[in-house]
Design a protein that fits this description.
- This protein is α+β, with helices and mostly antiparallel strands.
- It has five domains: 106 residues, Beta-Lactamase (2-Layer Sandwich); 104 residues, PAS domain (Beta-Lactamase, 2-Layer Sandwich), CATH 3.30.450.20; 118 residues, 2-Layer Sandwich (Beta-Lactamase); 83 residues, Helix Hairpins (Orthogonal Bundle), CATH 1.10.287; 161 residues, Histidine kinase-like ATPase, C-terminal domain (Heat Shock Protein 90, 2-Layer Sandwich), CATH 3.30.565.10.
- 44% of the residues lie in helices and 25% in strands.
- The protein has 22 helices and 26 strands.
- The strands form six sheets. Strands 1, 8, 9, 10, 11 and 12 form a six-stranded antiparallel β-sheet that branches.
- A hairpin with a 5-residue loop joins strand 15 and strand 16.
- Helix 6 packs parallel to helix 7 and helix 6 runs antiparallel to helix 8.
- The chain is elongated.
Length: 737
């Protein structure tokens, strides 16, 4: 005992969307609609037509669809069915009747059987329906007349709230079939509503006459309709089905799963170079013998999943052998339509579509993509391929993974913006768009690696097709080393300029000091001589001479500082412990610094020997501490003097010199809580005669002299300061081996 699994009419809404995944599935939609119309009660035709309008409208992305029929005067179109997308108001109550004399474009189209017309609403003559279209935002109409028995009977409207993009060749084949099915269904309903009046056949009468006749002969019409329905049903269905099959040029098959009996249409055989007669007797073995042996196992697995209910449809791309020996690719689709009483599959129907050309194109594209991948994955530079439309990464090579510090799985399908720092997002988007348009080839930017590390890079891009998509292939080069080299060069240049400047000023200071010393010598000598010859009764004159001598001694001290800065007083180098020199300097400073300043020293752990001039090192300590005192003179403060040894595994570059790797250094730090310095002040702090102190409170030579002494000791001096936060001066001296 057999039973049919034909879906009820009410189920069309639920399965229309599932059937129409793409252009190829429209044929299944039309077959389903034809199947629903065949043998259904006439009262259900309207519901089926509404669902048909819904399904086809969604397929072509229409916003509204309507079915209009000519009235008895042949001068008006009356609406019979309508479907509207959500948000679109129906016209049924607002504009049910259209006068053809106000719509000449439609009147002319009605006379052309099979014609399709695209009409801009703006080109339609002004009338109520045009105003209604404008109000609802309808811009374009797709119109096709309904003909039956070589006469126009109505028109199908599809309306769009945008400019219609056109139909594919396949869609243009399916539209007349859909319209013809609609016309046949309307005709069948019309016969039900009419019956046949004496002297007139039902084929010659129009919609208004049917309604009039129904009002006059309600009982007779039911009797006539019952007779006509049975007579026309088989012929109409077969005609519709054949139209669908011929229009799709698909291979059609139907298989009795239980007996193996199989039916194929002629085109199924033609796809593999045969006629049906050449393949007889026909059975499921006919297909098995033509199928590729390697495809049979997968086909069987998918069939079993469909039979068990795990798959709604059977769908499989497989190979079949052509008569001349080559293999073609087919898309094999089908569904069980009838089941036995005990739930076993009985009849299964489906199609074969030749997709050989599509597969060949895909294979060529795949080969091209593989060649591209082999090329960029072998590059030493990082390569990231991003989809232009979605801006998402679709591929990358191992070098890109290493550069970013993430695996390919972490990088793929992230957006381009996520690969760059957030503070340059707008710049990133703008440059990506320019590269996507081919207007910019190379950009310099930064890549965001793991742990938010910013890596300077250059990105050169090319527009490519990757897996059928327009993409940007971005070759990313890490320029960190170039940036470091440029920074190193800048620092060396700055050091060279500073050294030249200090050397020049040193020569100048040495010349001035020498000449000034020659002037001071007779001043001091003759003043001391004059003082020695003064009588005891001249205390006032003696006091004046003391002032002269005191000022001359201050000048001599300044001369010594200038001589030290100019390196004309060479250091007397001696291997000695540094700690006692520092402690002696601090003992002297305790007596001379402001009492409000507390000196903290940390030197206990240090007991190393350095090669130095004790006097000059003391001069450095006193100069640094005096500067700190002046920076804190208006406040109570702490002065920290720290001495320790350090070992450098790597070379260290500083503003005024470099420290060598693999070397032990004595690190002397003088830290204060004073007013600090700005960055601009720090740039000039070692310049001779430059001072941040008030006039009369400093010569501007303290740090310059310290720099000259430390450089003569093959050491480095460095300063770190922040405005209103204090200053740290660090002195590095090599520890003697």
């Amino acid at each position: 005992m057999l039973h049919s699994e034909k879906k009820p009419v009410q189920g069309i809404h639920a399965h229309v969307a599932a059937k129409m995944h793409g252009e190829r599935d429209i044929m299944m939609f039309l077959l389903s609609t034809a199947n629903d119309l065949m043998g259904c009660a006439v009262e259900k035709i309207d519901l089926i037509l509404n669902d048909a309008l819904l399904g086809f409208s969604r397929y072509i992305a229409a916003d509204r669809a309507a079915l209009y029929m000519l009235d008895g005067t042949q001068e008006h179109l009356q609406m019979h069915h309508e479907w509207c997308r959500q948000g679109i108001s129906p016209h049924l109550r607002q504009c049910r009747t259209l006068a053809l004399d106000s719509l000449p474009v439609m009147a002319e189209l009605l006379q052309q059987d099979g014609a399709v017309s695209i009409v801009n609403v703006a080109d339609v003559a002004e009338n109520p329906i045009q105003e209604l279209w404008f109000t609802q935002g309808i811009e374009t109409l797709l119109l096709m007349p309904l003909w039956r028995d070589q006469k126009p009977i109505g028109m199908v409207f599809f309306e769009f709230m945008h400019e219609y993009a056109g139909m594919s060749e396949f869609t243009s084949q399916m539209l007349p079939i859909f319209v013809q099915m609609t016309g046949n269904a309307i005709g069948r309903k019309s016969i039900k509503n009419l019956g046949e009046s004496p002297g007139d056949s039902s084929k010659e009468m129009c919609a208004q006459d049917f309604n009039y006749a129904e009002l006059i002969h309600p009982h007779d019409l039911e009797f006539v309709a019952a007779q006509k329905e049975s007579e026309m049903e088989s012929t109409a269905y077969q005609k519709r089905l054949q139209q669908v099959i011929d229009g799709t040029r698909a291979g059609i098959w139907q298989w009795n799963v239980q007996t193996g009996e199989t039916w194929f249409n002629e085109h199924w055989a033609n796809m593999v170079g045969y006629t049906l007669d050449e393949l007889r007797p026909l059975s499921i073995d006919t297909w098995v013998q033509l199928a590729h042996p390697l495809d049979l196992e997968e086909s069987h697995r998918l069939l079993q999943q469909h039979f068990s209910g795990k798959l709604d449809y059977y769908e499989f791309e497989s190979r079949m052998q052509h008569k001349d020996g080559h293999w073609i690719w087919v898309m094999d689709r089908g569904q069980v339509t009838t089941w036995t009483d005990d739930g076993k599959p009985l009849l299964m129907s489906g199609t074969h579509m030749d997709i050989t050309e599509k597969r060949e194109v895909e294979e060529k594209l795949r080969e091209k993509t593989n060649e591209l991948e082999a090329l960029y994955k072998g590059l030493n530079d990082a390569v990231i391929i991003a989809d232009i439309e979605t801006r998402k990464v679709v591929s990358c090579n191992a070098v890109a993974e290493k550069l970013i510090g993430k695996s390919a799985d972490e990088i793929l399908y992230t957006t381009i913006e996520e690969l760059h720092p957030s503070d340059i997002l707008e710049q990133t988007r703008f440059r990506f768009n320019l590269q996507a348009l081919g207007l910019m080839k190379i950009v310099e930017t930064e890549i965001l690696a793991r742990n938010d590390k910013r890596i300077p890079v250059t990105i050169s891009s090319s527009i490519i097709e990757y897996h059928g998509r327009q993409c940007l292939m971005r070759v990313v080069q890490d320029i960190s080393e170039l940036k470091d080299a440029a920074e190193k060069n800048r620092r060396l240049q700055q050091q060279l300029e500073n050294a030249k400047k200090l050397e020049t000023l040193g020569v100048l200071a040495g010349g001035i000091a020498h000449n000034f010393n020659n002037i001071l010598t007779p001043i001091i000598g003759f003043t001391e001589l004059a003082k020695a010859q003064l009588p005891e009764q001249s205390p006032a004159i003696a006091a004046d001479l003391d002032i002269v001598l005191k000022s001359a001694e201050r000048a001599r001290k300044l001369v010594r500082q200038m001589m030290a800065f100019s390196r004309q007083a060479p250091p007397e180098m001696k291997r000695q412990k540094l700690k006692p020199i520092i402690r002696e300097s601090l003992l002297f400073l305790k007596e001379s610094l402001f009492s409000s300043i507390a000196i903290t020293k940390r030197t206990k752990e240090f007991d190393e020997i350095v090669n130095c001039d004790a006097g000059q090192i003391q001069q450095v300590v006193m100069n640094l501490c005096t500067n700190s005192e002046h920076a804190m003179e208006s406040n109570k403060g702490k002065l920290l003097v720290d001495l320790k040894k350090i070992y450098l595994k790597k070379p260290v570059k500083m503003a005024l010199g470099s420290l060598q790797a693999g070397q032990w250094y004595a690190l002397l730090r003088v830290c204060d809580m004073g007013k600090g310095m700005t960055k601009n002040e720090q740039k000039k702090i070692f310049d001779p005669f430059y001072t941040t102190k008030e006039t009369g409170k400093g010569t501007g030579l303290g740090l310059s002299i310290a720099y000259g002494i430390i450089k003569a000791h093959e050491g480095v001096i460095n300063i770190v300061s922040r405005k209103d936060r204090g200053t740290i001066v660090s002195v590095y001296l090599p520890i003697a081996h």
